[in-house]
Every structure is written in C-alpha cells, then in structure tokens.
Design goal:
Chain B: It holds the Pfam family Fer2_BFD. The structure holds two protein chains of two kinds. Chain A is α/β, with parallel strands linked by helices. Chain A contains eight helices and 29 strands. Chain A folds into three domains: about 190 residues, FAD/NAD(P)-binding domain; about 130 residues, FAD/NAD(P)-binding domain, CATH 3.50.50; about 80 residues, no CATH class. Chain B has three domains: about 220 residues, FAD/NAD(P)-binding domain; about 150 residues, D-Amino Acid Oxidase, Chain A, domain 2; about 110 residues, no CATH class. Chain B has twelve helices and 24 strands. Chain B has a six-stranded mixed β-sheet. In chain B, strands 14, 16, 17, 18 and 19 form a five-stranded antiparallel β-sheet that branches. The chains are: A alpha/beta, B alpha+beta.
C-alpha cells in the first residue's frame, strides 16, 4: 500500500510527489500523458519560476527541473496512466484505478493528492452561436497545435479574452507572422497581468474592452465574427461590427477538472469550481488532498508548486497520525469584493497562505479580516491577479468563530 | 446472371437503408453515392433522434408517412439488434398543460389506433409523475406511448452502411451528382464530379436536394424547402427526463422536445423556422432560435441548468416537400425512383421506406429479385472502451496496447477505438480524414471539454494513418483543414 498516490504530473503533482518523497513517504505519481509537466511543455514562453526557483524560466525548463529532481529522488512515476476512478474504502484506505497500455490496475493508498489541473471554457459555454466550422480553438488547444505538434492554425486571428493565456497566444501568433486582428474582452478592464498587457502595445494589437464575440460565420472555415459592445452591466448595447478572420481563439477562463472528485463525493465550492479544503488542502473526504489548478485557478506556476508541497505535508501528517488531528476548524468566509478564496477552513495550528481573487479592480484598498483585526494595505487589486496573503497562527487564534476576508476602499 | 446496376443518390439514413435492403439480392449491383466525405452528414446528422410512435401523422392527409412510420418503428426493434446500434426504448409522453390540450390528445389517440400503434393511453395524476418525476407540476395529463425510442442517428447510418458494404454495396463519397443521363425515356446513369456512373435504376434519396435531383430528369412537380430546428445539449450529470417529453403538437411541428439523448445528456429542441429554398446549407444556430427553444423547453422541464452548462448547440434542416407527404414512387422516366421529401419521421420510417422501394422495383418496374444464398444481416459495433467491462478491457489491451491509451478524457475513448474508427472509415472508402468522422464513430470530442485536449491527438493519429501532414487533416472535409501549414509557414511567406 502506498502512503500517497499523486494524480496528475503537472507542476502541482510533481512538486507534491517530490516533497512527499523528501518527507519519507512511499509515493506513486500517475499521469495520463507519456510525458510529465502537464501544460508546461506547451508553454514555451518565459515567466515561470520567479518565486519558486528565483529565476525566470520557460515552461519546459521549469518542468525539466522538477523532472530531474523526481529522478534524483527515484520517485516512482507511471506515465500513460489514466485514472478511471477513485474509491474511498475507508478513511485510511483508498483505491485508485487506472488504465495504461499494460492493462487496468488498482493501487491501494492511504492518501491521494489530486492535481489533475483544469480545462478551458469553450465557445458554446460562452454563448457563441453561428456556424460550426474549423478554425475555432481554445487557447490551450492552439498552443498545443503550434508548440507540441508544429501546426500553424491560421493567419488572421481574433482572440476572445484578455487574460494571460489569451495575451500570450496573441504574442505567439504574432511572432509566427500571423495577423492578430483583435483581442476582445468582455469586462471594462483587461484580464491579464500588467507585464502581459504590454504585449498588445509591442505588437500593435487592438484591444476592445467591454465587447464580446457573439457569432461566427463561415463555410468550412471561420470567415468572420460578430462583435458587440456591452454596457457596465454587461448588457449588449446594440452597437456591433464584424471582423473578418480565419481563426477564433477562445481564452475565456479555466475550470478546475474535478470530475473524479465529484464522483467520490467531495464537496465543491461553486466560487472556485474546485473542492472545499482545509489549510492542509484536504477535501471533505479525509485523506484526499488537492493542489494546483484543480484546487483554484492560479496565475503563477510558483503558487501551484507551493500548493503541491503543502498538500504533501498534509499527506505526511495524515499518514503519521492516521488522519488530520485538528479538532476545531474555523471557517474563512468571503466578504465584500472577494470573489473566491481557498482554503475554506483554518485550524489555527499553523500559519497559512490564503489564495483569493477580487470581483472588481480597485485602487488604494485594505484587505481586512475584521474578526481578528488584521488589515493589509494594497495600492491596487485586480481580478486577474491572485492575492496571496499570509495569516499567522497567533492571528487566527484571535477568532471566536468564522473569519471574514474583505477588500474595502481606504 | 446479368446484374442490374442501381445508383442510390444520398447516403443518409434513407439511402443507406435502401442500400442495405437491396444488398440482399443476387442480381443487383448497388452503388451508394454521396457528395459529403462520409455517410450520414446531411439531414440525418442533426435531428431529435427519436423513433416515433406513429400517432401524429394524419392518414387522410399524409397516408405514406402514417403507414411507414409505424412499420419503421417495428423494424427498428429488429435492426438495432442486428446492427448493434445504440438505442433505448424509453417511451414518450405527449404532455397536456391546458384542459383544451386533451382534445388534441384524444385526436392523437384515435389517429394512433387507426395507424396501428399499440399500447397507447392517456395517463393522469400520480401515474403521470411516476412515469416522469421531473415533469412540470403544471402538467395535467399526457398521452403515453411506450413504443417510442431513441437511437444514435449517425451511428445508425454508419452501421447500416457498413453492413451494406459488407454485403457488396460500393460507396462513392465526395462524389456529387451533377446530371442524370436519360436515353429514350430510360435512365442510363449519373454524371458526377468523379465521372460517369452507369446505372439501370437511379434512386433519388438526396434529402434536402431531392428536388434538384428530380429536376435533372425533368420531374418538377415538387420543391423542397428547409425548415430549421435548433438544439441545446448539456453537460453530463445534469438530470434529464426518463421519457421523451413532447408538448401537445401544433400543425407545423411536433414541438420542442425535452429528452435525455442516447449518451446520457439532457437535450432540448427543436424549434421550427421556415427558410427560403436557397438556404439549404444554412446550418447556423441563432440566438433567437435558441432562445425560443429554451422558453419552450422550460414549460415542460422547469429545472433547466444554468446556460453555461451547455456543451453544444446545433441546427438541423428538415426537408419539407410540397404537399407535406413523403414522395416515394417510380416516375415517368423508366428506372428513376423518387424517395423525396423525407422529413420527420424519416429517421423512424427509413427501414420501412427501404422495403417500399423493393416493392416499387418489383411491382412497378417488374423486376424479379433473386435473394442471395448468403446474406449477412449482422454488423458488430465498434469497440467503445468506456463500455467494456474490466476483464474485456484487459483482454483488448493485451491484444493491442493502444486500447490502454486514453485519447479523449471526458468520454474515455482509447487510441484503440480511434484506430478502429479509422479502419472502418477506410472500409467505407472515406478519402479525406476528418475529426468528425472519428467523432461520430467513437464519441471523442463530444464531452465536457468539447475536444480541446483530444482533438490535437486525434489529428496526429489521423495524419499518421492516412499518410498526410497533420495540418491537412480536416475537421469536416475539404475546406475545413485544421491548419495552414507547419508552424513556420507564414515566416517563410508560403501561405
Ligand atoms: C430538426 C429535425 C428533427 C428531426 N427529428 C426526427 C426524429 O426525431 N425522428 C425521426 O424519425 N425523424 C426526424 N427528423 C427527420 C429525419 O432526420 C430525416 O427524415 C432523415 O434524416 C432524412 O434522411 P435522408 O437520408 O432522406 O436525407 P439526408 O440525411 O439528407 O441524406 C441525403 C444525402 O444526399 C446527399 N446528396 C444530396 N445531393 C447530392 C448530389 N447531388 N450528389 C450526391 N449526393 C447528394 C447529401 O449529401 C446527403 O448526405 C428530423 C429532422 C430534423 C431536421
């Protein structure tokens, strides 16, 4: 029986497996691909690892470092292994069933670290109508086509969504000689990190804020898309125009991939789309931990890796004590201008990192936890940038009941 | 024995069914022709997929539809077994929301009896909600039609075509009929973009285009116009009805249906919007149409999910003929048989239509048909990894490790499934590799993520097996290529 089976070999899963092994646990890492790294190998741009490795790396480089470490530690890794189901035999014993080219196998384990990442929202989900033609890709799919398989999808590109992924794809297309005709953003402000918004200026790409793509027309292939302007309540104003293009890239956000967790009955937080967790990143099913984008959509790989390590520490405690020994959990609640947060329950036995996102951008704000009298000033907050805030053990100890997190103007 | 050559124009459910039934005869050489790259990509691709009960076609107004629907329903019970077509016999409820609706239900009941539909009755109260617990509480009663079922329509066309080819039918895909040669009042064959195909009998099963084909031999007493219907399909795990739910019908449509389609997804639709005859390829979904469907469905099924739980919206075009009834007959030009205006319930009626055509060949053309000593009625379904019990799955993997490599995560489709699909595509002589051909055979790309993970891998496998460059693989045939070249093509200024 394993101490921990890690599901998913992206940065969260690799970091979790490494840490678990370093902590002396008996680990198995499973991934459905025949390579490790999750989406990192397709992210050939820099911007990875500034916090984690204190160096700016590309996605493949970041993945490489973790892979080397896995090798050094002789962590058992199984590729081409698609997990079909998780079964919760008892609190102390779980069965993971996976299929691989060698057959279908069951492995028994005390804990699971689930790090299966996220999926992208597609065109239908965001209400685009019209013809179902070639040339409509999610950003990740286009990235895979270009950077893993060497295929150029098209030459006149419209991108939906100004988040980091959309902006990075805008640059990627421009660098390969395509004409990026527009980036269309529903919200009145751009969705990406400031450093990525520079891309638009560098490559002279128009950004339409408060606009959305509503329709695609074409025969075999995309020919043009219809764009409409929206007001501050995101209602359509009636002002509309067409852009001719042969490719439409959808970069409209990610959704944690939690199907297997739902099947074992893990409680899901509708705000994050990921599971409800405590400060050990343990879900509502004891011994199942989560990390990375399966927990909450992160914008930096460094946080993802950090969550992997945290989950591994949780697994270690669980294995040693046959469970997480905490007696009392303090609920962390969302207050004003906090769209989502994790973890949801704090033990007060240790310092924790809170990962949160605001609903709307604001300047000169305070992040407040009124019940414990904690306040942090920030010059700006943006939905695109995850807030990462440390709560100290002694601060949490001041709480009588739940703690609220809110972001208020100064 | 001199063989009679038969050209069937159109490899939809109708043409394929005719080909299968005709493949039974020793003295026929059957050619199945379609302009699309694969079978079933016309009207048969996008519809409600229901095997209707046969109660709503008025035998006075639409005698052919009324007769063939019930017979088709009965035949499907046999065909789905012989051909291993995915199906469910879950019955339908035609729901009354107002007192007046009962008059219409009584009419349907009476009509159904005349058409020979067994086991129908009106249910009310507790019994109604026992049959369908999630139905709107506003429902007053319903006509209960147990013989209604659902099939995978495209799976059905593929299965039928595979069986037909196994029995000697020859397919001609990407072959568009551009003219029909007639000499001294008899057909001699069809002109196509791929050359002339000789034929003694030409069967027009061209769906939306059947009027254009008929005009090629001078038959112009009918016209086909498209009637658009739009649909929503929702993500798995969203509770849908156990039965097929219809509203009480109106004169132009059976109304917006709420159902759990064959692979377990909640589906709602269609509305009905008449388009001009020139818009036979207008398959665009529209916001107004989808809105109408939403409002309609809500009346029967108030518990609709949030709209972003949609995984796909799509459109179908019904081929509406002048007069409204199916046109199935031998025309003046000897050897030319029209099977036109096959609107709903054409899917249901298709097997019965095929036997009708045999009758016409025998009776009206006076041709004696000789049965083959060995005709194979069976066809084995493609392997679906997701449906295999564990020991079976392990056997498959041992035989071929590709069955242990999952390509589509959402629907658990293995590389082995995909390879088998490609083998079967080649068996039907499909020339252009397309993701949709794999999709319709395996269900890959139809899950929650709509293919963003698995499409690139399917493209690779198709490219390898068809020996083409990956960017030349298409989504749905020529003109829908996945890419424009390798990733450096624009920098080299070649594209
Ligand atoms: C919205 C909607 C809902 C429906 N719901 C149901 C239902 O629930 N139950 C039911 O029983 N029926 C239903 N129907 C009806 C059913 O789908 C049709 O009756 C049936 O699919 C018609 O099949 P077909 O083979 O006649 O036509 P098609 O499937 O269109 O086949 C005709 C083929 O001919 C080919 N062709 C045309 N012109 C040429 C040419 N010149 N050269 C070569 N090839 C050519 C086309 O490419 C096409 O593949 C529905 C239809 C629609 C649109």
């Amino acid at each position: 029986m394993y101490d921990v089976v890690v599901i998913g070999g992206g940065p969260a899963g690799m970091a979790a497996a490494i840490k678990a092994k370093e902590l002396g646990l008996n680990v198995l890492l499973l991934d459905e691909n025949d390579y490790l790294g999750g989406i990192l190998p397709q992210c050939i741009h820099p911007g990875f690892g500034i916090h984690y490795f204190r160096e700016e790396l590309t996605g493949p480089e970041f993945a490489h470092r973790l892979k080397e470490r896995l090798k050094e530690l002789r962590v058992k890794v199984k590729g081409n292994a698609r997990v079909l189901s998780i079964e919760n035999y008892s609190d102390l014993e779980k069965v993971v069933t996976f299929v691989s080219p060698e057959g279908i196998f069951d492995v028994r384990t005390k804990t699971i670290i689930y790090a299966a990442g996220a999926r992208e929202r597609h065109a239908f989900e965001i209400g685009i109508v019209g013809d179902r033609v070639a040339g409509i890709y999610t950003a990740g799919e286009a990235q895979t086509l270009m950077d893993i398989y060497g295929i150029m999808p098209g030459k006149e590109i419209v991108i939906v969504g100004s988040g980091d992924v959309g902006l990075i794809m805008a640059r990627r297309f421009a660098l390969e000689g395509a004409r990026v005709k527009a980036v269309i953003e529903l919200m009145p402000y751009p969705g990406g990190l400031a450093r990525n918004i520079m891309i638009l200026r560098d490559f002279n790409i128009p950004l339409y804020l408060s606009h959305k793509v509503v329709e695609v027309r074409g025969r075999g292939r995309v020919k043009r898309v219809k764009v409409v302007k929206v007001d501050e309540n995101l209602r359509e104003t009636g002002e509309e125009f067409w852009i001719s293009c042969d490719t439409l890239i959808i970069s409209a956000g990610l959704i944690p991939n939690v199907k297997l967790l739902k099947e074992v009955g893990v409680e899901i937080d509708p705000a994050t789309g990921g599971p409800v967790v405590n400060d050990r990143l343990e879900t509502s099913v004891p011994g199942i931990f989560v990390a990375g984008n399966a927990l909450v959509i992160n914008d930096l790989v460094d946080y993802v890796a950090e969550q992997g390590e945290l989950a591994a520490e949780g697994a270690k405690e669980f294995v040693e004590n046959e469970g997480i020994g905490t007696k009392r959990w303090i609920r962390l609640k969302r207050g004003q201008n906090v769209r989502l947060l994790a973890p949801h329950y704090l033990s007060g036995e240790r310092d924790v990192w809170i990962y949160a996102r605001v609903s709307k951008p604001m300047e000169n704000v305070a992040v407040e936890f009124p019940e414990i009298g904690k306040r942090i000033r920030l010059p700006v907050v943006k939905p695109a940038e995850m807030l990462r805030i440390r709560l100290r053990k002694k601060e949490i100890a001041r709480a009588k009941g739940a703690i609220t997190m809110e972001v208020v103007p100064l | 024995m001199k063989k009679l050559r038969i050209a069937i124009i159109g490899a939809g459910i109708t043409g394929a069914s005719i080909a299968r039934v005709l493949s039974r005869y020793e003295n026929l050489e059957v050619h199945l022709i379609d302009k699309n790259p694969d079978v079933g990509w016309g009207v048969s691709k996008a519809n409600t997929a229901i095997i209707h009960g046969g109660y709503d076609d008025d035998p006075d107004k639409y005698p052919v539809r009324a007769r063939l629907c019930v017979r088709g329903n009965r035949l499907w019970h046999q065909w789905v077994k012989e051909l291993e077509i995915p199906h469910v016999w879950n019955g339908a409820l035609v729901v009354a929301l107002k007192e007046e609706d009962f008059d219409e239900l009584e009419k349907l009941l009476e009509r159904g009896r005349r058409n020979g539909v067994p086991e129908m009755r009106i249910v009310e109260g507790e019994e109604l909600f026992r049959l369908e617990p999630g139905l709107t509480k506003e429902a007053l009663g319903a006509l209960w039609v147990p013989i209604v079922g659902q099939i995978g329509p495209i799976s059905a066309v593929i299965a039928i075509a595979e069986n037909a080819v196994a029995n000697g039918v020859k397919t001609h895909l990407e072959t568009e009929v551009t003219g029909i040669r007639v000499e001294r009042g008899e057909v001699k064959g069809v002109e196509t973009n791929e050359g002339f195909i000789k034929a003694d009998i030409v069967i027009n099963a061209a769906g939306l285009y059947a009027d254009e084909i008929a005009r090629m031999v001078g038959v112009d007493y009918f016209e086909i116009h498209p009637r658009k219907g739009e649909y929503w399909i929702f993500d798995e795990g969203i509770p849908g009805p156990r039965r097929v739910l219809f509203p009480t019908p109106t004169p132009i449509s059976k109304g917006i249906v709420v159902t759990t389609e064959i692979s377990g997804h909640l589906m709602i639709g269609p509305n009905a919007q008449d388009l001009p005859a020139e818009e036979k390829d207008n398959l665009a979904t529209t916001r107004e149409g989808l809105e109408e469907v939403w409002e309609g469905a809500k009346k029967l099924w108030p518990n609709l999910p949030p709209r972003d739980k949609v995984i796909r919206t799509f459109t179908g075009l019904r081929p509406e003929p002048t007069g409204g009834d199916f046109i199935i007959k031998a025309e003046e030009v000897w050897g030319f048989i029209n099977v036109a205006g096959i609107r709903s319930p054409g899917l249901t009626s298709a097997p019965a239509i095929a036997y009708e055509v045999v009758e016409i060949i025998r009776r009206d053309l006076g041709i004696e048909l000789v049965e083959k000593k060995k005709w194979n009625p069976y066809r084995r379904d493609i392997t679906h990894f997701f449906a295999l019990p564990r020991e079976k799955a392990n056997e498959f993997i041992k035989r071929n490790p590709a069955y242990g490599r999952i390509v589509c995560r959402c629907n658990k489709v293995s590389e082995g499934d995909v390879l088998e699909a490609i083998e079967r595509m080649k068996f039907l002589a499909i020339k252009t590799p397309s993701v949709d051909s794999v999709k319709f055979r395996t269900k890959a790309t139809t899950g929650t993520c709509q293919g963003s993970f698995c499409r690139p891998r399917i493209i690779q496998i198709l490219a390898r097996e068809y020996g083409v460059e990956p960017w030349q693989v298409t989504l749905k045939g020529k003109g829908s290529e996945i890419g424009i070249g390798d990733v450096k093509v624009l920098l080299r200024r070649e594209a």
